[in-house]
Amino acid sequence: MSDEKRLSQEEIEALLHAADGDRSLEGQGQAAETGLQDAERQTLGEIGTISFGAAAGTLAALLKQPVEITEPTVRLSSSEEAYQVDGGAKVWTSVQFKDGLHGSYALAMKLQDAKAVADLMLGGTGVDVTSDLNELHLSALSEAMNQVVGTAATAMSSIFHRPIRIHPPRVTETSDAAGAAPGAPFEGQLVCVSFRFKVGSLIDSTLSQWIPLAFARELAQLARTAGSSDDSTAAQRPRQTAGVETSAGIRGEGVPSSERVVQRPEFVEFPSQKRVNPTPANLSLLYDVPLQVTVELGRTKRSIKEILELTTGSILELDKLAGEPVDIYVNQKRVALGEVVVIDENFGVRVTDIISPAERMRNLQ
């Protein structure tokens, strides 16, 4: 190569720096492509706020304690961190969508928080629960989390404008960082949505939702698409503006506010009619359906040791006073109060009060 075509040392170094810069920009582009954008973080936070905010009311009814699930934070994480955070001692609820969405996520609750929730579900106080989780505790947690994620799925239906259903969730426990929750979607990058989780004065902690990155981005995209559909539908609706009536209709654009006519609406009065509660014509088809009626005299709690010590002649003191009304249940739902009577040689119960429809609805929840 002649001297005229030979590159100087400065030119060679400049070319090398330019190549390094191109590779750096390429790497940044790939990172941005596989990462999580700010708009996606915000959308996922809104989805979590709406869905699990609604679920807080369901959990409060189950635990008979005020429940708050608020202040979500969204960040990109990994499966390793999911198991290692909080020392790995957690209870996982794995959720698989059945209809409306194709994917899964997992909820992680600190082990001590899960113990308190299980104790409340079983009628305890939730204070200083030191015993390990047994099958009964896990069954109670499964019922609670089934209600929570079911309510969250219903709330998500309103976000995505489609019916969404889930498979029955799976609740498992991990006691160390090496443990894995069966069925949890923990492979590769994950999106962690952390909520502040409060239950009365018993729990002030965090509840975290772990979503595979690809599914999280799909949720964000679907939510934005549904939101755009709402905006376009609203834009196509006729504008309700005050204006000047012409032969072509209502002209409302460009009319100064001082010239707009504001009038009270006129409503047509309907003749008063006597309200009648309709009775379904085919209600008689249900008359032969058998229902189990149970009368409860009272209840009591005893430890396992006391139960094992029961012998013939032992007396159990109930929580009802003598002469106090007994509870009447139909298919395990309390519907009335009554008093015990004797009919010939058999016990009976005289109905003294019917539970109000509002209270019956609360008992059904």
Automatic annotation (TrEMBL):
Superkingdom of origin: Bacteria
List, alphabetically, the Pfam families matched: CheC, FliMN_C
Grouped into one coarse class, the protein's main location is membrane
Please provide the record's keywords in A-Z order. Answer: Cell membrane, Cell projection, Chemotaxis, Cilium, Flagellar rotation, Flagellum, Membrane
Domain CheC-like protein, residue spans: 136-172
Bias type Polar residues, positions: 226-239
Q: Which residues form the Flagellar motor switch protein FliN-like C-terminal domain?
A: 286-355
Q: How does it sit in the membrane?
A: Peripheral membrane protein
- Compartments, as annotated in UniProt: Cell membrane
Region (Disordered) location: 226-260
The family database entries (NCBIfam families) matched by this protein are listed as: fliN (TIGR02480), PRK08119.1 (NF005995)
**Similarity-based family:** Belongs to the FliN/MopA/SpaO family.
- UniProt name for this protein: Flagellar motor switch protein FliN/FliY
Q: Which organism is it from?
A: Alicyclobacillus cycloheptanicus
